[in-house]
Specification:
760 residues, U3 small nucleolar RNA-associated protein 25 homolog, Rossmann fold, eleven-stranded mixed β-sheet, nucleus, single chain, rRNA binding, alpha/beta
């Protein structure tokens, strides 16, 4: 009985999301990485296997704990004896980020029991086979109880929950248009953007032209979006001008959206400086004006704090409008086919793709999917009395929602961090949504869905890799609108998943999936879907990798629109400490050679200046994990006195590294950008900064520089900041120092010295 009670106590120490992430990936999500696994009378103690660079004689003498079973093993043992679910609560974060003296902070972080601090060092992936099988049995049991089971990397794709009950109710083949909900008259109008785009018949010469010839571009200045670059391969289109005022009736929205949109969007209109009768904010008006023409759009100024929700509402309106019109056309033609005379030509009813999914929405976290579905429901509900029927809504809220009590009360982070990591931040999910007239079906099978909402990882695990037995990407064959929101976050997750998706979208399916070929559009049969697909790309920054996706994987025949505003000041103006900034230029022959050139420049020109003991407390900020590994291996080879922190470093090792660096026991600290993105810890004791490469997020530059004020010990005059850059870093450089300084620095091959007084 005592053993069973002990197991329950340990189960309570992990939240539902933590247990799920442990089952699926064998490790904790970086956001929920914890120091302690202690609840009640149970303390998990393990033997510490510290990283090589952190070993010291004093450390090895003091660490003599006996090896115990890991926390993950304990969890699996708990699942054996206590399968029933318990109410979970989030453990408070053990670290305090108060602005106190450095020594006091480290005392707080080091105040936990030895077993707690060293638990994080255990490798959670080392799971015995029999215990893994037990966990697999528990997964199937929890699935029966309503718990979401996605994918286990060790056992391949597990069949996840899909709604089979409502299949016939949401089938496009067996339903017909309801007269009161029809929008046929609107669909027949020549000015309807949906029909104009989808009914356009491309010729073979035009397709060949788009495949071979470069795009021609033109510029335009819009009041809110700023400088726009319009590009197209086909004949030059008329320059699109921003509408000063937009009448909802002129947008050709589907019937229910005309009345619901002003109500749903009312929350953003109250913040507009000049109130008007327009149902759009100035930003939404210009963005929707472009989206409604079915051009591709790249907007690199999305901000989670300011305009993020405005943009989300705008693209949700566009996606839902597209789906409702497409389904209305199919249902209307169903009725016409039913009433047609025998022998009538059936080519008039080509209104579908090779598969049903029309819209793919890529978002980083479950919270984003939750908000999107809530917007869809709000847009479909005409009033409080006419509620739409949403199947599996309770299950959806349970799996995609979050418990406010799970958030540690003492978590103090910047506002942008709070906005990005709000709610459920699980990054492995996918869900199909079917919409038919006045009903919505959540968890619809992909081939019965109109909209698929997923994370890059969620799609990647379905697509699989070449050679895998169980993989599927046919559902991507007829995607007509691709929305990639918050693309910058995928740079911090795994950008390869995005590239993998782009390589498998709009390919001919390997199976027919029961499609009626007499209803399939010729553009799909000709394998021209990619030329009709609209791609909407939203990001918080401009990055070469994001630009590459927009330029190389988007083939829309209508053309593309990219927002290209240049920063005037840069984030260096937000540095509040008096700090000399030295920008050192390195030369490289090409983009591919810049990686090796930077490494060689660093070890030959920069590192020798910091080897002296006087240059202690040196933090080296490394954006790329691969560069971090390369530097770490070099530092070990050269036997330098250093420690390191990356996104995979366990919490105990992080605390130890920060303590060694603060006290000066370690001269160098290698510090990765992804760790800073997920944690935003204040590193105290910095006297010398080296940016191995300019940060991906420009505001990280000022955040890291401002960490120097965390330790005020009267050595301000010795502070230094060195930045490495090349001519290929023009975008990142402009975001840090401004466009004017960037132009001067790229023209000159000399090192640039800037001094920030703290008043900028």
């Amino acid at each position: 009985m005592g053993k069973r009670r002990a197991g329950r106590e340990l189960l309570r120490s992990l939240s539902k999301k933590q247990k799920k992430h442990l089952r699926e990936f064998g490790e904790e999500h970086p956001f929920y990485d914890k120091v302690a696994w202690e609840r009640g009378s149970i303390t998990v103690q393990v033997d510490v296997r510290s990283e090589d660079s952190d070993k010291s004689s004093a450390e090895s003498d003091s660490e003599t704990e006996v090896e115990q079973v890991s926390g993950y093993h304990k969890l699996l043992a708990t699942l054996k004896t206590s399968p029933e679910s318990e109410s979970e609560e989030e453990e408070d974060e053990s670290e305090s980020e108060e602005a106190e003296e450095s020594e006091a902070e480290m005392d707080i972080e080091g105040s936990q029991e030895p077993g707690e601090a060293e638990e994080g060092e255990e490798d959670e992936n080392d799971v015995p086979e029999e215990e893994a099988d037990t966990a697999e049995q528990m997964l199937s049991q929890e699935q029966a109880d309503g718990t979401d089971t996605s994918c286990d990397p060790r056992h391949g794709v597990i069949e996840e929950f899909t709604d089979v009950k409502h299949e016939s109710e949401f089938s496009l083949e067996t339903n017909f248009m309801e007269e009161e909900s029809g929008d046929c008259s609107a669909d027949k109008r020549d000015s309807n953007p949906f029909k104009q785009h989808m009914d356009k018949e491309l010729e073979d010469k035009e397709v060949e032209k788009m495949s071979t010839l470069p795009k021609t571009s033109s510029q335009s200045q819009w009041p809110r979006l700023g400088q726009l670059i319009f590009s197209s391969t086909l004949e030059k289109h008329k320059t699109l001008k921003a509408d000063k005022e937009v009448d909802v009736k002129q947008l050709h929205l589907h019937k229910p959206l005309e009345s619901t949109w002003p109500k749903v969007n009312k929350q953003f209109l109250s913040s507009v400086d000049k109130p008007s009768d327009s149902p759009f904010t100035p930003l939404q008006r210009e963005i929707f004006c472009i989206m409604n023409t079915y051009r591709d759009l790249f907007y690199p100024e999305r901000n989670a704090l300011t305009n993020g929700e405005e943009i989300r509402h705008a693209y949700c309106l566009h996606a839902l409008n597209h789906v409702l019109k497409a389904n209305a056309q199919v249902l209307s033609n169903n009725a016409k086919r039913r009433d047609r005379k025998p022998g009538t030509d059936t080519d008039d009813y080509r209104d579908q793709g090779l598969t049903r999914p029309k819209v793919l929405m890529i978002v980083p976290f479950r919270e984003c999917a939750l908000r999107i579905v809530h917007i869809f429901i709000s847009l479909l509900e005409v009033n409080d009395r006419k509620k739409i029927d949403v199947s599996n809504k309770k299950r959806f809220k349970g799996e995609f929602g979050s418990d406010p009590e799970e958030k540690p009360p003492n978590l103090k982070r910047p506002e942008d961090y709070e906005a990005i990591f709000a709610g459920n931040i699980d990054d492995h999910f996918r869900i199909g949504v079917a919409i038919l007239q006045k009903s919505m079906r959540l968890y619809a099978p992909f081939y019965s869905s109109d909209i698929i909402i997923a994370s890059p990882l969620g799609v990647r695990t379905v697509i699989g890799a070449e050679g895998e037995k169980k993989r599927d990407f046919d559902f991507l064959s007829s995607i007509e609108i691709l929305i990639i929101d918050q693309a910058d976050i995928y740079l911090m997750q795994n950008w390869e998943h995005v590239l993998h998706l782009m390589k498998h979208i709009n390919l001919l399916p390997l199976d027919s999936h029961g499609v009626d070929f007499s209803r399939v559009r010729m553009l799909n049969l000709n394998n021209w879907s990619r030329y009709y697909r609209q791609t909407l790309l939203f990001s918080a920054l401009q990055d070469p990798q994001i630009n590459s996706v927009f330029n190389k994987h988007c083939f829309n025949y209508v053309g593309q629109v990219a927002v290209r505003n240049v920063p005037l000041t840069g984030s260096i103006s937000h540095v509040v400490v008096q700090l000399p900034h030295v920008f050192r230029r390195l030369e490289a022959e090409s983009v591919t050679s810049v990686i090796d050139a930077r490494f060689q420049f660093f070890i030959d020109k920069v590192l020798p200046e910091y080897r002296d003991a006087i240059m202690s407390h040196t933090l080296i900020y490394v954006p790329s994990y691969f560069d971090y590994v390369r530097l770490r291996n070099y530092f070990k080879k050269e036997d330098l006195n250093f420690t390191h922190i990356c996104e995979y470093t366990k919490k105990a090792a992080v605390c130890r590294a920060r303590r060694f660096f603060l006290k000066g026991e370690k001269q160098f600290l290698l510090f990765t950008e992804r760790f800073h993105f997920y944690k935003r810890y204040t590193i105290k004791g910095i006297r010398n900064l080296i940016f191995y490469e300019l940060p991906t997020y420009s505001h990280f530059y000022s955040e890291i520089c401002n960490m120097l004020k965390a330790t005020d010990n009267g050595v301000d005059a010795t502070w230094t900041c060195t930045v490495l850059y090349s001519k290929y870093d023009a975008q990142k450089l402009a975001a840090v120092v401004g466009i004017d300084r960037t132009a001067q620095m790229l023209q000159s091959k000399k090192n640039v010295h800037l001094f920030v007084t703290g008043e900028n």
